[in-house]
C-alpha cells in the first residue's frame, strides 16, 4: 500500500501563505541546495501529485509556462495529478484527473500505487485528508520567519493527531525539514 505524504513550507508561527493567496515570499528564505535536491528526489519517488483546486490552479499556471527547462518542471508536468474540486470537472494540464470525491479516490489510489502519493500545499485538502485518517506522513520545511498573519496550514477545531518524528534536517539557511509519521488508529 502506498503512503499519502503531505509536503509544505510553513513559517515558524504556522502560516503557509501570507494574507493574500500565493503570498509566498518567505519561501525564498528557505530555498537552497537541500530543497533543490528534495524537489528533484520527488520526481523519482512520487506516484501521483495531489492538489486542492486553488493550489492546482497556481501550480498549473506556473509549471505550464515556466521558462526553466529542468527535471523539476519535467516531473511537475509529467507525473499523474489528482485534483480535488467541486467547482471544476476537467483539466487540460497533462495527466490530470479532477475528482469531487477525493477521499474515495485517495483510498483507492493508496491500494494501487507503488510509490508515495504527495500532496503539495492545499491546506484545506490536507485538513480533510487528515480528518479522514488517510495521511501517513507530514513533511514540513519550517522557515525561520514569524509572519504574524496569514493562512495557517493546520486548521483549528480538529481532534488531536499524534505524530512520531522520523527525521529532522537543518538547512544551510537555517530552515528545518521535519518528517513525521502520522499515527492513524
Q: What do you see in this structure?
A:
With 185 residues, the chain is an alpha/beta fold. Helices cover 30% and strands 28% of the residues. It contains six helices and ten strands.
The low-confidence runs, each spanning 5 or more residues with pLDDT under 50, are none
**Helix-strand category:** alpha/beta
So how many helices?
6
Morphology call: globular
Mean pLDDT: 94
Order of helices and strands: EEHHEHHEEHEHEEEE
Quickly list its features.
alpha/beta; about 180 residues
Short structural description:
The chain has about 180 residues and is of the alpha/beta class. It is built from 6 helices and 10 strands; from the N terminus they run ββααβααββαβαββββ.
Task: Itemize the secondary structure elements and their pairings.
Elements: E1 4-11, E2 15-17, H1 27-30, H2 33-44, E3 48-52, H3 53-63, H4 71-78, E4 81-84, E5 96-99, H5 102-112, E6 117-120, H6 123-131, E7 137-143, E8 151-152, E9 163-170, E10 176-182
Parallel strand pairs: 1-6, 1-7, 3-4, 3-6, 4-5
Antiparallel strand pairs: 2-8, 7-10, 9-10
Amino acid at each position: 500500500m502506498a503512503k499519502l505524504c503531505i509536503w509544505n513550507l510553513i513559517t515558524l508561527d504556522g502560516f503557509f501563505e501570507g494574507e493574500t493567496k500565493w503570498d509566498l515570499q518567505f519561501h525564498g528564505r528557505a530555498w537552497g541546495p537541500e530543497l533543490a535536491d528534495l524537489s528533484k528526489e520527488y520526481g523519482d519517488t512520487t506516484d501521483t501529485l495531489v492538489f486542492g483546486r486553488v493550489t492546482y490552479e497556481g501550480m498549473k499556471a506556473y509549471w505550464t509556462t515556466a521558462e526553466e527547462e529542468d527535471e523539476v518542471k519535467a516531473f511537475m508536468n509529467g507525473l499523474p495529478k489528482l485534483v480535488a474540486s467541486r467547482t471544476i470537472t476537467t483539466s487540460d494540464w497533462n495527466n490530470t484527473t479532477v475528482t469531487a470525491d477525493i477521499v474515495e479516490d485517495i483510498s483507492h489510489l493508496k491500494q494501487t500505487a507503488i510509490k508515495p502519493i504527495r500532496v503539495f500545499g492545499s491546506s484545506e485538502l490536507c485538513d480533510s485528508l487528515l480528518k479522514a485518517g488517510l495521511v501517513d506522513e507530514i513533511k514540513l520545511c519550517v522557515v525561520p520567519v514569524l509572519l504574524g498573519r496569514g493562512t495557517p496550514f493546520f486548521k483549528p477545531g480538529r481532534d488531536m493527531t499524534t505524530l512520531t518524528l522520523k527525521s529532522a534536517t537543518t538547512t544551510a539557511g537555517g530552515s528545518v525539514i521535519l518528517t513525521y509519521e502520522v499515527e492513524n488508529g
